[in-house]
Amino acid sequence: MLAFAAAVLEGAGYRVLTASGGEQAIEIAAQYRGPVHLLVTDAVMPGMKGADLARRLRSSSPTLPVVIISGYSTDLDAVSRHDSFFYLAKPFSGEAL
Predict the structure, then answer these.
(1) What burial class does residue 57 get, using C-beta atoms within 10 Å of its C-beta: 0-12 exposed, 13-18 middle, 19+ buried?
(2) Which strand (E) or helix (H) includes residue 49?
(3) How far apart are CA 87 and CA 34, in angstroms?
(4) Dihedral angle at the C-alpha atoms of 48, 51, 52, 54, nearest 10 degrees?
(5) What pTM was computed for the model?
């Protein structure tokens, strides 16, 4: 899913930074010299939940738009509304992303 999402966003003209987990994403975002315009994260990742990653990145960039993707919708809808995250159910199309 990571490769698919990256390809779709790159095809739409975005510069895409990828990470295998939350801690790596935080490191990459901290080292990146340009602005981060959008965070697309999986709800469940190694070492950190996507919502926790989003909250940490938003601590330094409060208006960062966040899309959380997941195959499980159990409690994500409530989290998304509370934190103003967008939610995208798996599987999803390039057009939906």
Answers:
(1) buried
(2) strand 48-49
(3) 25
(4) 110
(5) 0.86
Q: Are 6 and 94 a contacting pair, CB within 8 Å? A: no
Q: Which residues contact 5 (CB under 8 A, 6 or more apart)?
A: 40, 69, 97
Which tens digit of pLDDT belongs to each residue from 13-27?
A: 999 999 999 999 999
Please give the torsion angle defined by the CA atoms of residues 55, 65, 19 and 41, in that order, rounded to the nearest 10 degrees. 80
Report the distance separating Cα 6 and Cα 43, nearest Å.
16
- Count Cβ atoms below 10 Å from residue 29 Cβ, excluding itself: 18
